[in-house]
Amino acid sequence: MKPNRPLLATTLLAAFFISACEKEPESSGRGGWGGGATRVVTAPVELQPLVDEIQALGTARANESVEIQPRVSSLVETITFEEGQIVEAGDLLVSLEDSEIVAGLAVAEANLSESRSLYNRSQSLASTQAISASNLEQLLAAVKVNEAQVQAAKARLDNTRVRAPFSGRVGLRRVSPGSFVNSQTVITTLDDVSVIKLDFSVPETFVTVVQEDMAIIARSVVYPDRVFEGTVASVDTRLDPVSRAVRVRAIIPNDDGTLKPGMFMTVDLQRDRGEVLVAPEQAIVPEGTEQFVFVVEEGVVQKRSVALGRRIPGFVVIDDGLAAGETVITEGTGKVRPGSQVESINSATAIQPSERPATEG
């Protein structure tokens, strides 16, 4: 006789449900929303000092720099400077041959003397009306023309003496005595390197960070163990439309002449923003356009909306929504909800890999 299979299956299924109902639920104590507290990793929200740091690439320039060129065409007569010499403003550097200009000055002075004498004699005749007023005015105009010619000749003569326009260090000599020079000839260079102008660019996102008198730290590959300190002197009024960067000029003291114009340097900008409230980046739970954190108070979870500021490696600045000293969940946010009972584990406490709560992705 064959067994009744449907009856046997129904009997076994009923026995299974009876056994399941008689078995009491277990409390794992490992999390979830069962009877035990969820184990989570927490960390405190703290005030920390914040310093803005920007690194940029810059080029060193002389405080003042010029190519020394004569203003007249002539032959070099004497050279009175040495290459690399420090000179003061007004010091004579080169004398040019001036015999023709001296002769022209003598002619102009003689013409001036003659015109003045004629004008003075004519003035005495004007009172007797022996000379017309118009003729007297013409004689006075001739005097003024000759005076101007004398001044012009003196200026040309003065231009044969090439002088330093400011204090600094002269460069290499590019002419020799007897060389013919004109206004296009470069005799030497002159650089004032008592201070160095360091020009560099920063992205437009840092325009509000860089300000005048802001301290900077610069380094050069030539002196890897030395730090050069300076201050921001000015910020350009325009941004480069291609790079979207703004040019900044800093001033670095260079009393010992260590830095040279044209050197490549790296710049570290620092700005102390004081203390800000920061929380671990892992504690932030994004939902749509809003950001939340789970705060633990006396073992109970609260979900709180926060306003975020700038991000720091591993942390984020909290602009609003939290207070210093509060505790937030950094690991296990996916296993809790508002009102959940949790067991807090400090982030410094070691957790076995099998016990580590899963983080929200």
Strands, helices and their partners?
Blueprint lengths: L4 H18 L15 E7 L1 E23 L5 E6 L6 E2 L4 E5 L2 H28 L6 H26 L2 E3 L4 E3 L9 E2 L6 E16 L11 E6 L2 E17 L5 E9 L10 E17 L4 E3 L2 E8 L2 E6 L1 E6 L2 E6 L6 E5 L10 E5 L15
Parallel strand pairs: 1-20
Antiparallel strand pairs: 1-19, 2-9, 2-13, 3-5, 3-8, 4-7, 5-6, 7-9, 9-12, 10-11, 10-13, 11-12, 13-18, 14-15, 15-16, 15-19, 17-18
Helix pairs in contact: 2-3
| Whole-angstrom Rg | 44 Å
CATH class of one domain: Mainly Beta
Mean pLDDT reading? 83
- Might you state the CATH topology name of one domain? Elongation Factor Tu (Ef-tu), domain 3
**How far apart are the termini?**
61 Å
With helices defined by DSSP (H or I, 4 residues minimum), what is the helix count?
A: 3
Which CATH architecture of one domain would you pick?
Answer: Beta Barrel
Given as residue ranges, the uncertain stretches (5+ residues, pLDDT < 50) are 1-34, 348-361
Strand content: 35-45%
Give me the secondary-structure category.
alpha+beta
Biggest beta-sheet profile: 6 strands, mixed
Number of beta strands? 20
Listing every helix as H and every strand as E from the N terminus to the C terminus, the arrangement reads: HEEEEEHHEEEEEEEEEEEEEEE
Helix content: 10-25%
Backbone shape = elongated
What is the CATH superfamily classification of one domain?
A: Efflux pump adaptor protein, beta barrel domain
TL;DR?
β15 and β16 form a beta hairpin. The protein is 20% helix and 43% strand. By secondary structure, it is of the alpha+beta class.
Verbal overview:
With 361 residues, the protein is of the alpha+beta class. Among the domains are: 38-45 and 284-346, conserved putative lor/sdh protein from methanococcus maripaludis s2 fold, CATH 2.40.420.20; 55-63 and 187-275, Elongation Factor Tu (Ef-tu), domain 3; 98-159, Helix hairpin bin (Helix Hairpins, Orthogonal Bundle). Helices cover 20% and strands 43% of the residues. It contains three helices and 20 strands. Strands 1, 14, 15, 16, 19 and 20 form a six-stranded mixed sheet that branches. Strands 2-9-12-11-10-13 form a six-stranded antiparallel beta barrel. A four-stranded antiparallel sheet has the order 6-5-3-8, with no helix packed on it. α2 packs antiparallel against α3. The protein is elongated, with a radius of gyration of 44 Å. Residues 1-34 and 348-361 have low confidence and may be disordered.
